Amino acid sequence: MIFYQTEERKKSTMGMTMTQKILAAHAGLDSVQAGQLINAKLDMVLGNDITSPVAINEFKKAGFTSVFDKEKISLVMDHFVPNKDIKAAEQSKQCREFAGEMGITNFYDVGNMGVEHALLPEKGLVGPGECIIGADSHTCTYGALGAFSTGVGSTDMAAGMATGQAWFKVPSAIRFELTGKLNKYVSGKDVILHIIGKIGVDGALYRSMEFTGPGLASLSMEDRLCMANMAIEAGAKNGIFAVDDITLAYVKDRVNRLFTVYEADEDAEYDEVIEIDLSQIKSTVSFPHLPENTKTIDQVGDIKIDQVVIGSCTNGRLSDLAVAAEILKGKKVAKNVRAIIIPATQQIYMDAMKLGYLETFIQAGCAVSTPTCGPCLGGYMGILADGERAVATTNRNFVGRMGHVNSEVYLASPAVAAASAIAGKIAGPEQD
């Protein structure tokens, strides 16, 4: 069952974008405009095992003794969990004890956790029209559901846990008008890499990236979650997708509370409108050491690799594993290449097991991990040595992101990553 309502129209107000409408509603205002400073009520506050301890320390330092709502805080132990060392264990312990003290309902630990930005949508903890902050830059993922969602610092997380509010400067927006349909083996990852390559890593600085147009029908929820996730890689405050039947089908039986569907006004102001024909997008790879450094697969050349990682909050969902399994089935990972597959949640892990994907991966010579962010941020489960190269479905490829400062990370889709694992070099799914 779906419990939702459409927004009340107020003809007297000025035209607003989706993001501006959500912020206005949560600030109790009829309208807001770009640049305005507001206080907004929060529907969810998120932290993980790295960022939450700092927030907890600030929370207690400020003298707070209770959280604003036990149901509207999520603490997900996903970065260095299962604990990689003593410090990681101590940080998880602090989060565990705080969750117990405060009676926080949505605490996810070893055995039931997942990569936070895959877990919260899966559990229905975030929904359309909501206002969400998280002490993690990729909290903008939930814009895929038509929510305003953005990353904040740990001190803002502390204030959010205590008061249920956060301050924002209302962003202006860029509208991306999507047309056409994706080709086989081309996914949301390729689309967002294409866009970042086009506008640059600061191309949407402190602006909202609003995705709309008939091309949305070609994008699965997994595509949208990936694209919204990487809005931060273009410098954006948030990414947000228009709510359609695909959105509503996804939240059905997940989001069991009333939510509001917001639409941008016809006279909403945008800094610019960028048209993207999805049918023209090819498999795309982001070269070191910036996500904007993109090349299409036919421009890559001969680049040998040492490691492949398929997973993360960007591309560890079931459809991502399905594509990888399709390409790897009956094949072997190239000699001297390490292929690591990380399902993003326990549910995805189980579904992949039932569908035979895990057997396919293991027979191909891949290592399959419990859910974790580990290798994405150079934490564990796939650290690179001096001079090594990796193709990863993760979202950042800065210097030293996945290990040694002289290592290199190439960002790509699960299809390209799987094909590259077989080839021993960066390759497209049609080349394997």
Would you mind describing this structure in some detail?
The chain is α/β, with parallel strands linked by helices. It folds into two domains: 16-278, Aconitase, domain 3 (2-Layer Sandwich), CATH 3.30.499.10; 284-423, Aconitase, domain 3. The chain contains 13 helices and 20 strands. It has helices at residues 18-27, 52-61, 86-102, 116-123, 154-163, 188-199, 221-229, 245-251, 312-315, 318-328, 346-354, 357-364, 414-423; strands at 4-6, 37-41, 44-48, 73-76, 106-108, 131-134, 148-151, 165-169, 173-179, 208-212, 238-241, 259-261, 272-277, 284-286, 294-296, 307-310, 338-341, 367-368, 389-392, 408-411. The strands form six sheets. A five-stranded parallel beta sheet has the order 5-4-3-6-7. Strand 3, helix 2 (52-61) and strand 4 form a beta-alpha-beta unit. Helix 2 (52-61) crosses helix 5 (154-163). The termini are far apart. The model has no long low-confidence stretch (mean pLDDT 95).
Briefly, what is this?
The chain is α/β, with parallel strands linked by helices and 432 residues long.
Return the average pLDDT rounded to an integer: 95
Largest sheet: 5 strands, parallel
What percent strand? 15-25%
The amount of helix comes to: 25-40%
- The number of helical runs is 13
* The number of domains: 2
Q: Using the coordinates shown, work out and report the CATH topology of the largest domain.
A: Aconitase, domain 3
Q: Trace the largest sheet across and list its strands.
A: 5-4-3-6-7
Number of strands: 20
* Highest CATH level, the class of the largest domain: Alpha Beta
State the CATH superfamily name of the largest domain. Answer: Aconitase, domain 3
Low-confidence stretches: none
Category from helices, strands and their pairing? alpha/beta
Shape by Cα distribution:
globular
How far the N terminus sits from the C terminus, by CA atoms, comes to: 43 Å
